[in-house]
Please model this.
Amino acid sequence: MSTSGATDAVMAPEPEPPGGGEERPLLDVRNLHVEFRTREGIAKAVNGVNYSVHAGETLAVLGESGSGKSVTAQAVMGILDSPPGFITQGEVVFQGRDLLRMGGEERRKIRGARMAMIFQDALSSLNPVLSVGEQLGEMFRVHQGLSRKEARAKAIELMERVRIPAARERVKQYPHQFSGGMRQRVMIAMAMALEPELIIADEPTTALDVTVQAQVMDLLAELQREYNMGLILITHDLGVVADVADKIAVMYAGRIVESSPVHDIYRAPAHPYTRGLLDSIPRVDLKGQELYAIKGLPPNLLHIPPGCAFNPRCPRAQEVCRTDVPPLYRVNQERASACHFWKETLDDDSAPSGDA
Amino acid sequence: MTTAPRPATPERPAGPDPDGREPILQVRNLVKHFPLTQGILFRKQVGAVQAVDGVSFDLYPGETLGIVGESGCGKSTVARLLMNLETPTSGEILYKGEDITRLSGRALKAVRRNIQMVFQDPYTSLNPRMTVGDIIGEPFEIHPEVAPKGDRRRRVQELLDVVGLNPEYINRYPHQFSGGQRQRIGIARGLALRPEVIVADEPVSALDVSVQAQVVNLMERLQDEFGLAYMFIAHDLSIVRHIADRVGVMYLGRIVELGADAAIYEHPTHPYTQALLSAVPVPNPEAREHRERIILAGDVPSPADPPSGCRFRTRCWKAQELCAEKDPPLTVPPVFRGTAGPTEHPSACHFAEEKQVVPPE
Model:
């Protein structure tokens, strides 16, 4: 598909096409491939990922470490370390324009202003030798050319918006003087600073305690509603996903193996990997029994198994799974599953078998 | 072994006493304060981080006691105290009736054989320059009486087999294993001396979801096989619920509620437990509309300067003047005393009342 026509058509930020924003997704990632060229060989981290987010929508990208969920986000943001990382194929269409074909200068204008990212570890993402106010103010000084004083006033305003108490005093403080939850609020404030249309949150609450996690997720959801932002939430926590997401993309070995609206996937997963993840959650009524465990380990990205990448761990694997890579089958209007036997998986409502 | 109960044992903190068994570990008023000092030449103490401040509980043979709490609540310090890696400021840890906190030398070594630890981070708790065989066999170097020298290799291979690793991997190094496999190595090392108690400090939190279940299953199987007592420390409430027989909830150096797992999860009476349970994201999107969430204000106060009276009062929606003045003891609250229901368990709150936050499934 060529998008060059669309790319040339609009240069300035368009003045909101009436009604058109409804159908066109805010972000559309198409057939994205990312590889890391390392000394040991080529690690195929992302192998043909497709997803889209609309304004006001929350997409959860679920996956374990090494599934490619963060690498996809880095490629979308344009902060992939290159080398060793290379985008070999695909399109990242944001508001109708393919980001991968833009020059560095142009992308820089989008990054931070139109799309922003919240990282997992706030302590190492913030600069320890600059005060929080300076770091927040930098957004305004660089992107909007405000003076130091104006930027500081804006920083205080932002800190109040993410409900950091005593913002006027704390604006002069350094990251280490903030607690984990407060630091994550600063990260959110920084991402929100220029009121972007899209926020990518990479495990935003993983490093936080549960009670603080609930506060931060609430804040994020509230700001999203207020500004009608698209949110990509990258996480491994099925609980967090169920709490906030509208739709889910489950990743395994660099591919999306299942995508679905949130309610359907918990009710009836259409991929054995998703099913395995859901079954391995400890449940009250099964206390005392062995937990269901997906056998084996996630694959090494240098040697992804032929056929379906999940086949060595799959209870349903047949010969065809070892030879043919399953395409992303359409389950219904809104759902898709990359499993040759998605129908059987979907219909299977037996209790989790303990073949650990 | 001497199992005679000490005559001077302070009255047991009320709690379920399953089948009248003798506890294998009794912890009494354990306190650990880390001094905060100022100055280099003339160091003077300016305060103390009250990491653990008056913790009491029992551990019975073959049971799993789960300890949950947020970071900084002192749960890891309790683990280190049990292992005698730290000396408590005051209080006692009785192992089969004998106080182990002041032991040293040979006596300490003998006790340590029976209490072993599994650490959180399988990446840093294994020496990268030792082979798996050396790591798992090291306990035998320290306690040669357990396995004679010629027998060690076989014992190590047996242990590898027990934890589900290929015994042929004995000469490999830790970096050749995945996180889950490394945690199995850590567990094998903990098992080497056939201890009676294993203190597991967040043993699965560094692992991927699909691997967590494997390690939890392994730990449960080993418990049945060897009759181990676990002290299982974690912040993941659903895993603790799955594995624990009894649960203690810690907040800022204290246990605030202690009881059987069903009592804590289904009939919590302490407001902190209720808030903690309600904050856990439930992996069920149907539940999100009609679930009551208690969102606590603020952060955990600094343990160097804890609030007076009840330590939770600064974040508690029920707090009254009494809470600032009087420290609530960890006992069965008077309202529930004698009810013989699931709410009759120790809860350190002046205004304890039952509140179901997790809908029964």
Q: What stands out?
A: Residues 21-127+193-210+217-244 of chain B form a domain with the Rossmann fold fold (CATH 3.40.50.300). The radius of gyration of chain B is 21 Å. Strands of chain B lie at 25-38, 44-59, 64-68, 90-95, 98-99, 115-118, 197-201, 229-234, 246-251, 254-260. Chain B has a mean pLDDT of 86.
